[in-house]
Amino acid sequence: MTRYRLLSTIKSRIIFALGIGAVTTITIGLFGTFSVSRMSTDVHGMYSENTVQLAKLSNVTIALLNSRATLRRLQATRLAADVERFAPGIRADLDMADREWASYYPADVHDGRERELAGRLDALIAQNRRYADQAVAAFTASNFDAAAAALNGGAEVAAALTWVLREDVALRLQQAKAASDESTSTASRISAISVVLVVVNLLIAAAVSVAILRSILGPLKRAVGMANNIASGKLENRLTVDSRDEIGQLFAAMKKMERQLRQMIYHDPLTSLPNRVLFNERLKQTVAGPADPDALLGVMMIDMDRFKGVNDTMGHAAGDELLSEAAERLTVCIRPGDTVARLGGDEFAVLLPNVQDRRILDDIARRIIARFDERFALNGREVFVTCSIGISLYPVDSIEPDDLLKYADSAMYLAKRSGRRGFRYYSKELTEDAAKRLALESELRRAVERGELELHYQPKVSFPHHEVVGSEALLRWRRAGVGLVPPNDFIPVAEETGLIVDMGNWVLREACRAAAEWNAGGEALHKVSVNLSARQFESHDLVSVVGAILDETGCRPEWLELEITESLLLEEDGAILTTLSAFRAMGLSIAIDDFGTGYSSLSYLARFPIDTLKIDKSFVQKAATDRRHAELVKAILSIARCLGQEVVAEGVETAEQAVFLRQNGCQVAQGFLFSRPLPKPDMASLPRRFAPAEPSELASR
Ligand SMILES: Nc1nc2c(ncn2[C@@H]2O[C@@H]3COP(=O)(O)O[C@H]4[C@@H](O)[C@H](n5cnc6c(=O)[nH]c(N)nc65)O[C@@H]4COP(=O)(O)O[C@H]3[C@H]2O)c(=O)[nH]1
């Protein structure tokens, strides 16, 4: 721990290594300097001990020799003048010999041998001095015999002195050699220690370098491994780096990057829910994992009804808000351990493992639907968006994850087709249906090019004289090998796939051509009505497309009526109002189809530019026999009258129904009582006015 705190960065470790290098180098340097200085002190000592002492000894010797030589000269000349002249010199030599000896003697006595030689020399020098002093005194007194005797005594002392001096010099030389040998061996020791120190220094430097390299390279290798794993898409790495140094920081950053990448790859950025990739992985893991044999696994597909409308009309920001809110609502409906994912667009999925009872799934699905029933507040506006749910079960429907998803999707489409805002379970028949729908879809795509579409027209007659005032264009598909397919069998598929937009344009063009043809005579007006699908309103150029078709076919706007469904007006959406207002401004009339079957709010009748209400055939057909329905039809007629709208009764099959409608102020009727939808050529043979029909005539029409 301490090590990590002290050497927690690469920088500090390198500084530490350099510090160790510097300390060891300085140590070696100091050691060398100290050793050299010690050696120089030793050499200096040797010099002072031996050389200087020898010089003193030689000075003593020279002084003694000088004094003796001068004394001998005095003895040879025996002149008083010489005695007077040389006696001070002799004394001076002797004094100098004493001085030199005095400085020699105490300075350097090491051992017994030296002491012995020094003692002998000291005694001999003193003796010599005494003889020399006696001789000088004898010469001064001109007592030459006494002088000779003193000289002779001195000669013996000088001889002995010479021997002792030789011995002392030899001893000194021996000591000098020993000191020199000592210095040489010290130098060798220093050099050996220096070598050892250098080696130790190198070993320490190597050990520190290896430790530092290992502390860098190990984590660095793991960091590189981590980077490579991330680069190859492996985002569940167990590699770790504990250090807090620069590599540790790099590793921590890569871990963070890995987490963020995982978030990006496995989660939807808008809702933060798991995305399709993660959902599929979890589904596969759950299916592959140990399973409770009594438990089911549920897969739910959830699609928001009318999401596209919100997105297109209120903008993508509102669409995003809706999706985020939907994600939150879904999340609170599930159990802990379930997974909600956004698969894309408005498509959500829920993975529900360990379902002991199917009723649990029913409850969750109901809870989700109820949650979606609550209003969504987007940009300060209230929006109602329901949802449709499809459910598949493991292992009942399949044990394959892909199938489970596909089946839940099919069930979800079934829920949509069954009126939306509900849930459906997958069943085998759905797969067959789906296969049929797929075949239908691919054939339908080619139906327009192959010219397999036909328009039939069902006449509308006015009360009371049953004059033909217009017709409704109804699409048919003459499918190869099948025959005439009614629109209810293929229009839902065309709407789901978006094919309805091209088909609708084809219908508009054909209907406009027919209207232009039938109104060419200019006698009585024949208004052709065309059904428009909600999907056609989603394309933003609908108004210009209709305008272009009118121009192209020569159809005047007053010859065309556009039929829309009530549900389109429930969108509460400015774009629909704008489009309808544009149609109104062009001179087209707008009719509400299947009026009464939609939702209860009637306020749209005042808000939208509506010319005609088409009472749904279910009301019309029951009105003649059921009092309540009769009252409803009367109420609709009354509302339309108040709002200045025309009413067309659909599905009139009996004379009683026609009479009831006429008596209650309905202006126009349409139904098998007068005519079934007819191919265009047959329209030419229609009578201008239908005779009031008797019920018995119905079968023949
Ligand atoms: N039982 C009974 N039925 C009667 C009677 N009189 C008319 N009908 C049928 O009622 C439907 C009236 O059309 P719709 O309500 O607009 O309902 C239409 C309309 O919603 C849709 N549709 C038809 N053609 C087109 C089209 O070109 N575009 C779009 N978007 N939808 C179309 O398909 C629906 C069904 O069309 P069809 O099968 O042609 O069915 C027609 C017509 O044949 C009657 O007396 N008794």
TrEMBL record:
The keyword Nucleotide-binding does not apply. GO terms for molecular function: cyclic-guanylate-specific phosphodiesterase activity. GO terms for cellular component: membrane. It catalyses: 3',3'-c-di-GMP + H2O = 5'-phosphoguanylyl(3'->5')guanosine + H(+). Residues 295-428 form the GGDEF domain. One of its GO terms (biological process) is cellular response to nitric oxide. InterPro entries: Biofilm_reg_signaling (IPR052155), EAL_dom (IPR001633), EAL_sf (IPR035919), GGDEF_dom (IPR000160), HAMP_dom (IPR003660), HlyB_4HB_MCP (IPR024478), Nucleotide_cyclase (IPR029787), Rev_trsase/Diguanyl_cyclase (IPR043128). Residues 214-266 form the HAMP domain. SUPFAM superfamilies: EAL domain-like, HAMP domain-like, Nucleotide cyclase. Residues 437-691 form the EAL domain. The chain crosses the membrane at residues 12-34, 190-213. Pfam families: 4HB_MCP_1, EAL, GGDEF, HAMP. Keywords: Membrane, Transmembrane, Transmembrane helix. PROSITE patterns: EAL, GGDEF, HAMP. This is EAL domain-containing protein. It comes from Trinickia terrae. The lineage of its organism: Bacteria, Pseudomonadati, Pseudomonadota, Betaproteobacteria, Burkholderiales.
